[in-house]
Known about the structure:
- This protein is of the alpha+beta class and 393 residues long.
- Among the domains are: 1-170 and 378-393, Nucleoside diphosphate kinase-like domain (Alpha-Beta Plaits, 2-Layer Sandwich); 231-308, no CATH class.
- The protein contains 17 helices and 10 strands.
- The strands form 3 sheets. The protein has a 4-stranded antiparallel sheet, with helices on both faces. The protein has a 4-stranded antiparallel sheet with strand order 8-9-7-10, with helices on both faces.
- A hairpin with a 6-residue loop joins strand 4 (128-131) and strand 5 (138-142).
- Helix 2 (21-32) packs across helix 5.
Amino acid sequence: MSSSQLAYVIVTPYSLFKSRTGGVLSRLISRTGLDLCAMRMFAPSPGLAGQYAENIISAHDPQDRKIQELLKDYILHNFFPDSKTGRRRRVLVMLFRGDEAVRKVRSVIGNLSPERRSGETIRGTYGDLILDDETAQVRYFEPAVLAAPSNEEAETKLKLWARFSDSDGGVLENVTTYPHGDVPERTLVLIKPDNFRFPTGRPGNVIDFFSRTGLYIVGAKVLHMSTAQAVDFYGPVREYLRTQLNDNIGARAKGELERAFNFKIPPPVEKTIGAALGPVFGDNQFENIVRFMSGRAPSECASTDELNKPGTEKCVALVYEGINAVRKIRDVLGPTDPSKAPPGSIRREFGSTIMVNAAHASDSVENAQRELKIVNVGENNFKRVVEEAYGKI
């Protein structure tokens, strides 16, 4: 009998504000070996926050009743919209799938206790439960993340979040404030498939690098890019590959031919060779890029259905918001070629080739708008994954 389960992890508003998402994700992937199958940003309404708080106390939870009551009170105060401004708070929900997913997730997250001070678990590192030495009253409480204690509890609470996932989730609007006159930008980041080849901490580590920018995550999605999406997404690159590399291809071909046939090729012939081979080379490179991102090249798709079918490769798509968001993200990412990227940049640390270079980021506000439409981060894959596990909500 299969023990495959669906488990959730909720990153609290405070953990998001402190840019701890990458560290949390890194531990969950590397230490559980589970499949990260969905992510969605939420701005909980009073209805969602209230119902979740009412369901938080459980006889199946190994934490004592006082801790559970603390969690309920925490949700009522921190998941509800801000009492002064009415602004909703950001929450990230991640879904993990695999054998004994609930138990594995809980073991990595850990339980809450005033005696725990080690960083072995996520809560041991990022959570706090501080009591007054004299009165034993709670002085400060931050759980860092929330998760279900049992498979039954996971189902109940995931069905709740799924019911609100259209109205309260997606690419969030009006969840952050900026100084008067400052106009924020939005930009797209893709954590590329090379980070998901094995269950390592790399996806979270890459997100940690982006957290240096001080920008806000307002959208998140696990993406299996279709071949058609990849063709559309990288379409502007195709013409460059077909036309701008002719001189380089001609020079490389000239060198190989001169070595093979032992005679000199004059410059006009070199130029002709480049003009003939450049577009062929460019099309081949474009096919490789599309295959790398989606799992299938256009030439490998026999029908429109195959072109539009979700790909076999996994990415994480993130929408970052803030002042000068495009430039800040690109500065941390580094140039396309990892060998030319400065120390401390993502591509220098995690990239290996021009194609296998860890992450993509929009290079202008206009391109960000174009790419966001193609990737559609607001698409509700979260609800689909929950309904695949438990049936129609």
